[in-house]
Specification:
The chain is α/β, with parallel strands linked by helices and 361 residues long. It is built from 9 helices and 14 strands. Bound molecules: uridine-5'-diphosphate-glucose. The site of uridine-5'-diphosphate-glucose (UPG) has 23 residues, from helix 5 and strand 9.
Length: 361
């Protein structure tokens, strides 16, 4: 099935305008920002998350602002069908993120990233959900191709168990899109390194800013010459809402488009401008007036030497171009961090699965 551009979508299918959407991983870094943006646009949201800070509850519509039904639970065991009824678009952000811990906690990564995705997609297929936007990751690539960038057409070769599970999740979703017996569109967005207010505490920029503001040492994995395409969360949220709009541009696809079935496509979400860890360090020092106490150590297994998005396809299919450059975005995150206390570290006696973040980033 190919959407007709400009066709008016039935009610329930237009996140950003009206209707109802599901967000998995709603309490996570990207999920929080997405839920806010959808509700601000008048969409009623069912937000699912398994972390303890997310409790079952209802917030009514207020004026033009959409409602929020918060659902606490694990996608692998929740009864999903009732939550999906009347829903146009599902934003699947729930995952166990992070590259480096995936060597030692693989069963958890399999559970959160692969089993959860299979169960969600199966429920979407059975309830007639029209579109699923899946959070994938640049870590499915391995490294840049000959062009120096990572293009959606290159053969994925993940370097970490995490990347393998994200690739599996993306492919599972696309397999559902290729089914001829249902009409389900899938857009897998390969996020590059997302930052901004509320960024996960284990990630570089959060740690670097805290190191600058609080004087704590900062461990740098490797010599700091690794480059990342850092993309601001506000740009990522815009890409998500563009990808979730069912009356948006048509998706030509190698995965579908035939009679009966839906369409599926993969899109990079990055800026197209990568910078090194050392460059971010210098910028943080300049913007805060304090040089973080950086301690260089060995590179971590599974860490890519470079990520660099080829942004052409997202521009062509979604009309998406990142608007926030690293200097502006970093200055904003520093300002936010100055006014936001760091979360308390988890209790030392907590079991390893406690405090697990369940949202992609
Ligand atoms: N790094 C350090 N010290 C730290 C933390 C990170 O040197 O304390 C390095 C890290 O090794 C990497 C770079 O900084 O080389 C960026 O790290 P980080 O900001 O944690 O992001 P990535 O490792 O690029 O991974 C992020 C998300 C992951 C997502 C991926 C998409 O954590 O979930 O899939 O970006 O590209």
């Amino acid at each position: 099935h190919i959407d007709v551009p400009g066709r008016s979508a039935p009610s329930g299918n237009t996140p950003g305008g009206s209707g109802k959407a599901v967000v998995t991983g709603a309490a996570g870094f990207i999920g929080c920002h997405l839920v806010t943006a959808l509700r601000d646009g008048g969409t009623d949201v069912v937000g699912i998350d398994r972390r303890d800070t997310w409790e079952d509850g209802e917030t009514e519509r207020a004026g033009d602002r959409g409602s929020l039904r918060a659902v606490h639970g694990d996608l692998v065991s929740l009864e999903l069908e009732p939550l999906l009824s009347g829903v146009g678009t599902v934003f699947h952000l729930a995952a166990l993120p992070g590259v480096r811990p995936s060597w030692t906690r693989f069963p958890e990564y399999l559970h959160c990233n692969v089993l959860a995705t299979q169960r969600l997609m199966d429920a979407c297929a059975r309830t007639g959900v029209r579109r699923v936007v899946v959070a994938s990751s640049s870590s499915v690539y391995g490294g840049p191709g000959e062009s120096g960038t990572m293009s959606e057409d290159q053969v994925p070769s993940p370097l970490s168990p995490y990347g393998v599970t994200k690739l599996a999740a993306e492919r599972l979703a696309l397999a559902f899109a290729a089914r001829d017996d249902i009409s389900l569109d899938v857009r897998a967005l390969r996020f590059f390194t997302v930052y901004g207010p509320g960024q996960r505490p284990d990630m570089l920029i959060t740690r670097m800013i805290r190191a600058a503001l609080e004087g704590a040492p900062l461990a740098i994995h490797g010599d700091g010459t690794q480059i990342r395409d850092f993309v601001h969360v506000s740009d990522v949220v815009r890409a998500l809402t563009l990808a979730g709009a069912v009356d948006g541009p048509a998706a030509a696809s190698p995965y579908g488009g035939g009679s009966g079935g839906g369409s599926g496509e993969v899109l990079n979400i990055g800026t197209g401008n990568s910078v090194s860890v050392n460059e971010v360090l210098a910028l943080t020092a300049e913007l805060t007036g304090r040089t973080p106490d950086a301690r260089y150590g060995p590179a971590r297994a599974g860490d890519a030497a470079a990520t660099a998005a080829d942004t052409g396809r997202a521009r062509e299919r979604l009309g998406f171009t990142a608007a926030v450059d690293i200097r502006t975005g970093l200055a904003g995150q520093i300002e936010w961090a100055r006014h936001t206390p760091a979360p308390a570290p988890p209790a030392p006696s907590a079991p390893s699965a406690a405090g697990v973040r369940t949202t992609a980033g």
